[in-house]
Amino acid sequence: MKITAIEAIPFAIPYKKPLKFASGEVHTAEHVLVRVHTDDGPVGVAEAPPRPFTYGETQASITAVIDKVFAPQLTGLAPTAREAVHARLNRTVGNPTAKSAVDMALWDIIGQSLGISVTELLGGFTDRMRVSHMVGFAPPEQMVAEAQRIRDTYGITTFKVKVGRRPFMLDVEACRALREGLGDDVELYIDGNRGWTASESARALRAMDGLDLTLAEELCPADDVMGRRWLVSHTDIPFVADESATRPGEVTRELLSGSATAISIKTARTGFTYSQRVHHLCEGLGVEAVMGNQIDGQIGTLCTAVFGSAYELTARRAGELSNFLDMSDDLLAEPLRIEDGTLRVRESAGLGIELDPEKLARYRQDT
Ligand SMILES: [Mg+2]
Asked: According to the model, what pLDDT value does residue 24 have?
Protein backbone atom coordinates (compact mmCIF):
# COMPACT_ATOMS: atom_id res chain seq x y z
CA MET A 1 0.00 0.00 0.00
CA LYS A 2 1.29 3.45 -0.96
CA ILE A 3 0.34 7.04 -0.11
CA THR A 4 -1.13 8.60 -3.26
CA ALA A 5 -2.25 12.06 -2.08
CA ILE A 6 -2.60 14.24 1.03
CA GLU A 7 -5.41 16.78 1.24
CA ALA A 8 -5.27 19.74 3.65
CA ILE A 9 -8.76 21.24 3.86
CA PRO A 10 -9.22 24.50 5.82
CA PHE A 11 -12.51 24.70 7.69
CA ALA A 12 -14.05 27.17 10.13
CA ILE A 13 -16.66 26.56 12.83
CA PRO A 14 -17.90 29.35 15.17
CA TYR A 15 -17.43 29.07 18.92
CA LYS A 16 -20.55 29.38 21.07
CA LYS A 17 -18.83 32.20 22.95
CA PRO A 18 -15.54 33.94 22.06
CA LEU A 19 -12.30 32.54 23.50
CA LYS A 20 -10.49 35.35 25.30
CA PHE A 21 -6.70 35.72 25.32
CA ALA A 22 -4.50 38.50 26.66
CA SER A 23 -3.98 39.63 23.05
CA GLY A 24 -7.58 39.57 21.84
CA GLU A 25 -10.57 37.37 21.12
CA VAL A 26 -11.13 34.42 18.81
CA HIS A 27 -14.67 33.83 17.54
CA THR A 28 -14.11 30.94 15.17
CA ALA A 29 -12.16 27.68 15.24
CA GLU A 30 -10.08 27.79 12.06
CA HIS A 31 -8.70 24.28 11.76
CA VAL A 32 -7.39 22.04 8.97
CA LEU A 33 -8.79 18.63 8.07
CA VAL A 34 -6.07 16.30 6.80
CA ARG A 35 -6.93 13.31 4.60
CA VAL A 36 -4.27 10.86 3.45
CA HIS A 37 -5.27 8.75 0.44
CA THR A 38 -3.79 5.36 -0.52
CA ASP A 39 -3.78 3.19 -3.63
CA ASP A 40 -5.34 0.36 -1.63
CA GLY A 41 -8.50 2.16 -0.55
CA PRO A 42 -8.18 3.30 3.10
CA VAL A 43 -8.27 7.06 3.66
CA GLY A 44 -6.74 8.31 6.93
CA VAL A 45 -8.30 11.36 8.61
CA ALA A 46 -7.06 13.73 11.32
CA GLU A 47 -7.37 17.38 12.36
CA ALA A 48 -4.75 20.11 12.84
CA PRO A 49 -5.75 22.94 15.22
CA PRO A 50 -3.35 25.86 14.64
CA ARG A 51 -2.40 27.84 17.72
CA PRO A 52 -0.78 30.97 16.25
CA PHE A 53 -0.03 32.56 19.63
CA THR A 54 1.66 29.45 21.04
CA TYR A 55 3.34 27.54 18.23
CA GLY A 56 3.23 30.08 15.39
CA GLU A 57 1.28 27.92 12.93
CA THR A 58 -1.80 29.29 11.18
CA GLN A 59 -4.50 27.64 9.10
CA ALA A 60 -2.81 29.05 5.97
CA SER A 61 0.68 27.90 7.02
CA ILE A 62 -0.57 24.37 7.72
CA THR A 63 -2.32 23.97 4.37
CA ALA A 64 0.72 25.45 2.59
CA VAL A 65 3.35 23.25 4.28
CA ILE A 66 1.27 20.11 3.66
CA ASP A 67 0.45 20.97 0.03
CA LYS A 68 3.86 22.26 -1.00
CA VAL A 69 6.39 20.49 1.26
CA PHE A 70 5.04 17.36 2.98
CA ALA A 71 2.67 15.84 0.39
CA PRO A 72 5.27 15.73 -2.43
CA GLN A 73 7.85 14.15 -0.08
CA LEU A 74 5.52 11.48 1.31
CA THR A 75 3.64 10.43 -1.82
CA GLY A 76 4.77 6.93 -2.82
CA LEU A 77 5.84 5.88 0.70
CA ALA A 78 4.02 3.07 2.55
CA PRO A 79 1.77 4.30 5.42
CA THR A 80 3.53 1.79 7.69
CA ALA A 81 6.94 3.37 6.98
CA ARG A 82 6.58 5.83 9.86
CA GLU A 83 10.32 6.16 10.47
CA ALA A 84 10.87 7.08 6.81
CA VAL A 85 7.89 9.43 6.93
CA HIS A 86 9.21 11.23 10.03
CA ALA A 87 12.75 11.38 8.64
CA ARG A 88 11.27 13.39 5.73
CA LEU A 89 8.92 15.49 7.89
CA ASN A 90 11.80 16.30 10.24
CA ARG A 91 13.82 17.86 7.43
CA THR A 92 11.50 20.81 8.13
CA VAL A 93 11.74 22.21 11.68
CA GLY A 94 8.63 23.34 13.58
CA ASN A 95 5.13 22.86 12.13
CA PRO A 96 4.12 20.46 14.94
CA THR A 97 0.35 20.28 14.31
CA ALA A 98 0.75 19.86 10.53
CA LYS A 99 3.17 16.94 11.08
CA SER A 100 1.01 15.44 13.82
CA ALA A 101 -2.18 15.42 11.74
CA VAL A 102 -0.35 13.59 8.94
CA ASP A 103 1.08 11.11 11.47
CA MET A 104 -2.31 10.37 13.06
CA ALA A 105 -3.95 9.91 9.65
CA LEU A 106 -1.30 7.27 8.84
CA TRP A 107 -2.10 5.37 12.06
CA ASP A 108 -5.79 5.58 11.05
CA ILE A 109 -4.90 3.91 7.72
CA ILE A 110 -2.85 1.18 9.44
CA GLY A 111 -5.70 0.44 11.88
CA GLN A 112 -8.26 0.33 9.07
CA SER A 113 -6.13 -2.01 6.98
CA LEU A 114 -5.63 -4.39 9.96
CA GLY A 115 -9.29 -4.15 10.98
CA ILE A 116 -8.50 -2.98 14.55
CA SER A 117 -8.86 0.31 16.40
CA VAL A 118 -5.84 2.58 16.83
CA THR A 119 -6.25 2.26 20.62
CA GLU A 120 -5.72 -1.50 20.27
CA LEU A 121 -2.86 -0.93 17.86
CA LEU A 122 -1.08 1.42 20.28
CA GLY A 123 -1.55 -0.41 23.56
CA GLY A 124 -5.15 -1.48 24.08
CA PHE A 125 -5.32 -0.75 27.81
CA THR A 126 -8.98 0.35 27.87
CA ASP A 127 -11.63 1.89 25.61
CA ARG A 128 -12.44 5.09 27.51
CA MET A 129 -11.07 8.02 29.49
CA ARG A 130 -12.43 10.03 32.36
CA VAL A 131 -12.79 13.67 31.30
CA SER A 132 -11.27 16.74 32.92
CA HIS A 133 -12.85 20.13 32.21
CA MET A 134 -10.92 23.41 32.03
CA VAL A 135 -12.32 26.38 33.97
CA GLY A 136 -11.19 29.72 32.49
CA PHE A 137 -10.82 33.17 34.04
CA ALA A 138 -14.05 34.73 35.34
CA PRO A 139 -15.33 36.12 38.65
CA PRO A 140 -15.18 33.27 41.25
CA GLU A 141 -18.97 32.82 41.44
CA GLN A 142 -19.15 32.40 37.64
CA MET A 143 -16.30 29.86 37.68
CA VAL A 144 -18.12 27.86 40.37
CA ALA A 145 -21.44 28.03 38.48
CA GLU A 146 -19.74 26.85 35.26
CA ALA A 147 -18.05 23.93 37.02
CA GLN A 148 -21.33 22.94 38.71
CA ARG A 149 -23.16 23.06 35.37
CA ILE A 150 -20.51 20.86 33.74
CA ARG A 151 -20.60 18.41 36.65
CA ASP A 152 -24.41 18.23 36.61
CA THR A 153 -24.70 18.00 32.81
CA TYR A 154 -21.83 15.64 31.96
CA GLY A 155 -20.91 13.97 35.26
CA ILE A 156 -17.40 15.43 35.10
CA THR A 157 -15.67 15.56 38.51
CA THR A 158 -12.14 16.69 37.56
CA PHE A 159 -11.44 20.36 36.90
CA LYS A 160 -8.34 22.15 35.68
CA VAL A 161 -8.36 25.75 36.87
CA LYS A 162 -6.54 28.41 34.87
CA VAL A 163 -4.35 30.56 37.16
CA GLY A 164 -1.37 32.88 36.68
CA ARG A 165 -3.08 36.27 37.12
CA ARG A 166 -1.71 39.16 39.17
CA PRO A 167 -2.23 39.64 42.02
CA PHE A 168 -2.18 35.88 42.61
CA MET A 169 -4.83 36.20 45.33
CA LEU A 170 -7.42 36.49 42.49
CA ASP A 171 -6.67 32.89 41.59
CA VAL A 172 -6.31 31.74 45.19
CA GLU A 173 -9.81 33.09 45.88
CA ALA A 174 -11.20 31.40 42.75
CA CYS A 175 -9.68 28.05 43.77
CA ARG A 176 -11.02 28.40 47.32
CA ALA A 177 -14.50 29.20 45.94
CA LEU A 178 -14.35 26.16 43.64
CA ARG A 179 -13.36 23.85 46.50
CA GLU A 180 -16.13 25.25 48.71
CA GLY A 181 -18.73 25.22 45.93
CA LEU A 182 -17.92 21.75 44.60
CA GLY A 183 -17.06 19.94 47.83
CA ASP A 184 -14.32 17.42 48.52
CA ASP A 185 -15.42 14.85 45.94
CA VAL A 186 -14.04 16.67 42.91
CA GLU A 187 -10.41 16.74 41.79
CA LEU A 188 -8.89 20.20 41.26
CA TYR A 189 -5.57 21.11 39.66
CA ILE A 190 -4.09 24.32 38.29
CA ASP A 191 -2.36 25.60 35.13
CA GLY A 192 -0.51 28.93 35.28
CA ASN A 193 0.63 29.19 31.64
CA ARG A 194 3.90 30.74 32.95
CA GLY A 195 2.05 33.75 34.38
CA TRP A 196 3.84 33.96 37.73
CA THR A 197 7.43 34.19 38.90
CA ALA A 198 8.83 31.30 40.91
CA SER A 199 8.42 33.18 44.20
CA GLU A 200 4.83 34.23 43.38
CA SER A 201 4.10 30.61 42.53
CA ALA A 202 5.50 29.45 45.85
CA ARG A 203 3.44 32.00 47.77
CA ALA A 204 0.28 31.15 45.81
CA LEU A 205 0.77 27.43 46.46
CA ARG A 206 1.29 28.16 50.16
CA ALA A 207 -1.96 30.17 50.20
CA MET A 208 -3.76 27.27 48.48
CA ASP A 209 -2.41 24.68 50.92
CA GLY A 210 -5.35 22.66 52.18
CA LEU A 211 -7.29 22.80 48.88
CA ASP A 212 -5.93 19.35 47.91
CA LEU A 213 -4.67 20.37 44.47
CA THR A 214 -3.37 17.34 42.57
CA LEU A 215 -1.18 18.93 39.86
CA ALA A 216 0.46 22.31 39.20
CA GLU A 217 1.24 23.06 35.54
CA GLU A 218 3.67 25.65 34.09
CA LEU A 219 3.22 28.11 36.98
CA CYS A 220 6.40 29.99 36.02
CA PRO A 221 8.56 29.95 32.86
CA ALA A 222 10.97 27.05 32.34
CA ASP A 223 13.46 29.62 31.01
CA ASP A 224 13.70 31.03 34.55
CA VAL A 225 15.96 28.05 34.99
CA MET A 226 17.14 28.28 38.61
CA GLY A 227 13.87 29.75 39.89
CA ARG A 228 11.85 26.99 38.29
CA ARG A 229 14.10 24.24 39.70
CA TRP A 230 13.93 25.85 43.13
CA LEU A 231 10.12 26.00 42.93
CA VAL A 232 9.77 22.39 41.77
CA SER A 233 12.09 21.15 44.52
CA HIS A 234 9.93 22.97 47.10
CA THR A 235 6.56 21.78 45.72
CA ASP A 236 4.95 18.63 47.08
CA ILE A 237 2.54 18.00 44.17
CA PRO A 238 3.54 16.88 40.66
CA PHE A 239 4.71 19.89 38.61
CA VAL A 240 3.58 19.47 35.00
CA ALA A 241 5.59 20.64 31.99
CA ASP A 242 3.31 21.43 29.05
CA GLU A 243 4.49 24.01 26.49
CA SER A 244 8.08 23.81 27.85
CA ALA A 245 8.44 20.12 26.97
CA THR A 246 6.77 19.24 23.67
CA ARG A 247 9.43 16.97 22.13
CA PRO A 248 11.18 13.92 23.61
CA GLY A 249 14.49 15.80 23.97
CA GLU A 250 12.81 18.64 25.86
CA VAL A 251 10.94 16.18 28.07
CA THR A 252 14.21 14.48 29.00
CA ARG A 253 15.92 17.82 29.67
CA GLU A 254 13.12 19.27 31.82
CA LEU A 255 12.68 16.09 33.87
CA LEU A 256 16.36 15.31 34.43
CA SER A 257 17.17 18.92 35.30
CA GLY A 258 14.46 19.02 37.96
CA SER A 259 12.27 21.60 36.18
CA ALA A 260 9.23 19.32 36.08
CA THR A 261 7.98 16.12 37.67
CA ALA A 262 5.08 15.32 35.28
CA ILE A 263 4.34 15.80 31.57
CA SER A 264 1.33 16.93 29.54
CA ILE A 265 0.98 14.92 26.31
CA LYS A 266 -0.94 16.56 23.44
CA THR A 267 -1.54 14.46 20.34
CA ALA A 268 -2.26 17.66 18.36
CA ARG A 269 1.43 18.56 18.61
CA THR A 270 3.16 15.14 18.87
CA GLY A 271 0.76 12.92 16.89
CA PHE A 272 0.73 9.27 17.93
CA THR A 273 4.32 8.41 17.02
CA TYR A 274 5.98 11.11 19.12
CA SER A 275 3.34 10.98 21.86
CA GLN A 276 4.29 7.32 22.19
CA ARG A 277 7.93 8.29 22.64
CA VAL A 278 7.01 10.91 25.25
CA HIS A 279 4.80 8.36 27.03
CA HIS A 280 7.59 5.78 27.08
CA LEU A 281 10.02 8.36 28.46
CA CYS A 282 7.57 9.23 31.26
CA GLU A 283 7.12 5.57 32.09
CA GLY A 284 10.84 4.87 32.00
CA LEU A 285 11.73 7.87 34.13
CA GLY A 286 8.84 7.20 36.51
CA VAL A 287 6.75 10.36 36.26
CA GLU A 288 3.04 10.97 35.76
CA ALA A 289 1.47 12.05 32.47
CA VAL A 290 -1.77 13.86 31.71
CA MET A 291 -3.48 14.03 28.31
CA GLY A 292 -3.74 17.74 27.48
CA ASN A 293 -5.96 19.69 25.08
CA GLN A 294 -4.87 22.07 22.33
CA ILE A 295 -8.43 23.46 22.04
CA ASP A 296 -9.13 20.50 19.80
CA GLY A 297 -12.32 19.94 17.84
CA GLN A 298 -14.11 16.61 18.02
CA ILE A 299 -11.71 14.81 15.66
CA GLY A 300 -8.70 16.01 17.66
CA THR A 301 -10.44 15.18 20.94
CA LEU A 302 -11.15 11.66 19.70
CA CYS A 303 -7.45 11.31 18.79
CA THR A 304 -6.47 12.39 22.33
CA ALA A 305 -8.85 9.82 23.84
CA VAL A 306 -7.65 7.12 21.43
CA PHE A 307 -4.06 7.63 22.61
CA GLY A 308 -4.84 8.24 26.30
CA SER A 309 -6.95 5.09 26.64
CA ALA A 310 -4.26 2.95 25.00
CA TYR A 311 -1.89 3.09 28.02
CA GLU A 312 -2.31 2.53 31.73
CA LEU A 313 -0.18 5.59 32.60
CA THR A 314 -2.32 8.01 30.55
CA ALA A 315 -5.67 6.35 31.33
CA ARG A 316 -5.06 6.67 35.08
CA ARG A 317 -5.76 10.41 35.07
CA ALA A 318 -8.73 12.22 33.58
CA GLY A 319 -7.86 13.59 30.12
CA GLU A 320 -8.59 17.16 29.05
CA LEU A 321 -11.27 16.25 26.51
CA SER A 322 -14.06 18.81 26.86
CA ASN A 323 -12.94 21.93 24.94
CA PHE A 324 -15.03 20.88 21.93
CA LEU A 325 -18.15 21.68 23.98
CA ASP A 326 -17.41 25.37 23.24
CA MET A 327 -17.79 24.84 19.48
CA SER A 328 -21.21 25.33 17.88
CA ASP A 329 -20.87 22.28 15.61
CA ASP A 330 -18.33 19.83 14.17
CA LEU A 331 -17.63 17.55 11.21
CA LEU A 332 -18.37 14.09 12.67
CA ALA A 333 -21.44 12.19 11.43
CA GLU A 334 -21.92 10.91 14.98
CA PRO A 335 -20.97 13.63 17.50
CA LEU A 336 -18.81 12.80 20.54
CA ARG A 337 -20.71 12.35 23.79
CA ILE A 338 -19.48 12.73 27.35
CA GLU A 339 -21.57 10.58 29.71
CA ASP A 340 -20.92 9.89 33.40
CA GLY A 341 -17.81 11.99 33.08
CA THR A 342 -16.39 9.58 30.51
CA LEU A 343 -15.58 9.66 26.79
CA ARG A 344 -15.41 6.34 24.94
CA VAL A 345 -13.33 5.67 21.87
CA ARG A 346 -15.00 4.10 18.84
CA GLU A 347 -15.06 0.37 18.22
CA SER A 348 -14.59 0.57 14.48
CA ALA A 349 -11.23 0.03 12.80
CA GLY A 350 -8.69 2.85 12.74
CA LEU A 351 -9.83 6.02 14.49
CA GLY A 352 -13.49 5.36 13.68
CA ILE A 353 -13.95 8.81 12.14
CA GLU A 354 -16.93 9.17 9.83
CA LEU A 355 -17.40 12.66 8.44
CA ASP A 356 -20.75 14.27 7.76
CA PRO A 357 -20.41 15.30 4.07
CA GLU A 358 -22.98 18.11 4.40
CA LYS A 359 -21.17 19.63 7.37
CA LEU A 360 -17.82 19.39 5.61
CA ALA A 361 -19.33 21.14 2.57
CA ARG A 362 -20.83 23.85 4.81
CA TYR A 363 -17.69 24.63 6.85
CA ARG A 364 -14.83 24.07 4.40
CA GLN A 365 -13.29 27.28 3.15
CA ASP A 366 -11.53 26.17 -0.01
CA THR A 367 -14.62 25.85 -2.25
MG1 LIG B 1 -1.15 23.96 29.89
From this structure: 66
